[in-house]
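Consider the following assembly input.
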Amino acid sequence: MLKYHSYNIVFQEIPGEVTLAINLSNCPNGCKGCHSPYLQQNIGNVLTENVLEQFIAKYRNAITCVCFMGGDNDPYNVQQLAEFIRKKIDGELKTAWYSGKSKLPEYIDLNNFNFIKLGPYVEALGALDSPTTNQRFYNIVNRKLIDKTTLFQKRMNKINGYK
Amino acid sequence: METKIIKRDGKKETFSPEKIKNAIRKAFLSVGSVATEDVITNILCSVKITNGSTVEDIQNQVEIALMKEEYYDVAKSYMLYRQKHYEDREVRDKLQFLMDYSNAKNAATGSKFDANANVENKNIATLIGELPKSNFIRLNRRMLTDKLKEMYGKEVADQYINLLNNHYIYKNDETSLANYCASITMYPWLISGTASIGGNSKAPTNLKSFAGGFINMVFMVSSMLSGACATPEFLMYMNYFIGLEYGEDYYLNTNKIVDLSIKQRTMDKVITDYFEQIVYSINQPTGARNYQAVFWNISYYDRYYFDSLFGEFYFPNGTKPHWESLSWLQKRFMKWFNQERTKAILTFPVETMALLSENGEVKDKEYADFTAEMYAEGHSFFTYMSDHADSLSSCCRLRNEITDNGFSYTLGAGGVSTGSKSVLTINLNRCIQDASRKGVDYMSFLEEVVDLVHKAQVAYNENLKYLQEKGMLPLFDAGYINMSRQYLTIGVNGLVEAAESLGIEITDNPMYLAFVQQVLGLIEHYNKKYRSKDLMFNCEMIPAENVGVKHAKWDKRDGFKVNRDCYNSYFYIVEDDTVNIIDKFRLHGRDYIEHLTGGSALHLNLDEHLSQSQYRQLLRVAAQEGCNYFTFNIPNTVCNDCGHINKQNLNECPVCGSKNLDYLTRVIGYMKRVSNFSQERQIEASQRHYAKVSQL
């Protein structure tokens, strides 16, 4: 079972997309220095297909992607919900998953996602936009993970790039 | 118990009969006679002093008593003595202001009336502009109340002053005599130069005389307006003159060397050198405007918008505007200006991209992509989007509906000449809370205020017509703008706060929408009711730099519920971080802005730039939601040590590593250093919620 704490419209998490990000609670990873430790608690309401459908209905024409932030306590459910978006809602809406695990369970069908982020947050190595990061951001094409982490590095280069 | 009277500075003091007696004695002495105790007692018999009497009131009574006792000479001398002291006090107050202003941190904070961040530095020239402001306010009020009295009777005139003094309404730009802002047609200038508006330059004949003449013309026009001057045809005319010089297809050969001097400049360089001349000249502080730069605005158009506006347009030589070359020039100017802004802080022109939408998408794909590209490159400008080419922005905040898209051989494209003659603003929060406090239906109370505001605007219009009859307004006479096509604008402020006071949740919900529709619908109803052949009204959510802060301060002081220090010009609460960017578009979407005929630009504050595809998607969102006027606001960083300007919002200078930084932002409509805004506005800007969305 997945529970969500809140949602937001985000731009930096999935490059190039206007993303509805759903912040899932009950995160089991407990990374040191986590940016939102409250998401480690058992808070919020249950994220059902019904609830998800309502969120999407509210923003359907405005967003290009839905991203599950967390959900490592029930990866099977994340996959189900992604599949639900794929099959029942609209094939054009992209799906993404920010997981804190380094590897996804074997049974996950990558085809349910367009983007996947993997890896726990390690304070000393930094987040995706840090050059030393352990985290990876992938674009998924034909069930293959294509590493696009450099998109985040490029963004930082751009910020510092007007030198 | 001793009687306390109130001194001029508002302090209380125990009443001393000796002081009056002395004053009377001196008055008698000044005409060569002596007042005996009996005489003085007689006079004092007619003077009634109670707790709370003011000095001014007591002196008025003494004057009357002296005349009643038939000491006319003495009374006259007493009056002259009072007048002299009054003048001394006024000079002393001005002197005090002069010192305070000189000591203030910046020009906007020092300004007593109408603080304005467009004044870059404070100096003797800006001080000269500040000193007569209080006189202008008195003069404007007197002119308006006299006219109101004449047209609607004394009661209405008194009610106007009453509402003004008690902050139910606010007269914008009361410190200037000129009408507010205008979008002009340049056709009269193209045909006959500046002679008709009092200048001596002939009609432009080539690119060089266009560039020089244009600058002069904008300065002249601006000196006769209190607000902005928009030239929506700037690039179209420039394109015409470039075409005359290098041929219509010049845009295909811009790398060609066309300057045979030692510099050997390419055509592109020649063109951008003219951009430079015009833009840098117009950003200079201007003598005729108290050292402010003129508020210059321009527009870009997509192909369809352009066709609607200028499809019937002919230049004096009988040719029509050439879209392909103009499109190149628009894009070139925008790219050039974006780059130039990393070299210098250039506030003007304020740019608006006008796009036509159709079925929830931008009709001209090429321009939609280009608009997104420019936002992604960090350029800061407004977008106006509509299903019809129905509006132009006349300044950084007002859009004005176009009533006529026709063409005439004397005035050119009729549609472009629009604007606002005067803005008079209703403080909705105070009106609605005060009605509730008194147990009155707020809509009936508001209706009284709305009606009065329209009467005041009609009276203003009469005064303006009088000035025109006397030949004081050549912009109208020469056809740059048109008396019956300029709007009278009803401003609103404190809408969110008013809704909050009624317990309405400020989100996209039926109750809030009904409230917005009800209040703005009432204003539109009156806009139509008062409309005539010569009078047009529109309604704007005002972003004025200081009014929002003043209203919040006054309302808080008088015990009204005020949840923030500044009433903003948005349909959402700025500090509410549960409102996401799409919610904001929706809250400025067609249902909410339906009656906001004068517009209100949605400023989307982001702390980082988005990518082109993301901006492109947001243009779709705007088209779908029917949000017609918006911009994206990402603070640019300026290093105070090395002068580096960066399009990003940084906390360390990427060149010299300094942390002594300032930020450029649109706190109101135009980009300025945050440190140039008044202190209250700086606080507001620092509390403003920049959507910080990254959870990486």
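The two ends of chain A are 49 Å apart (CA to CA). Ask yourself how this observation constrains the way the partners meet.
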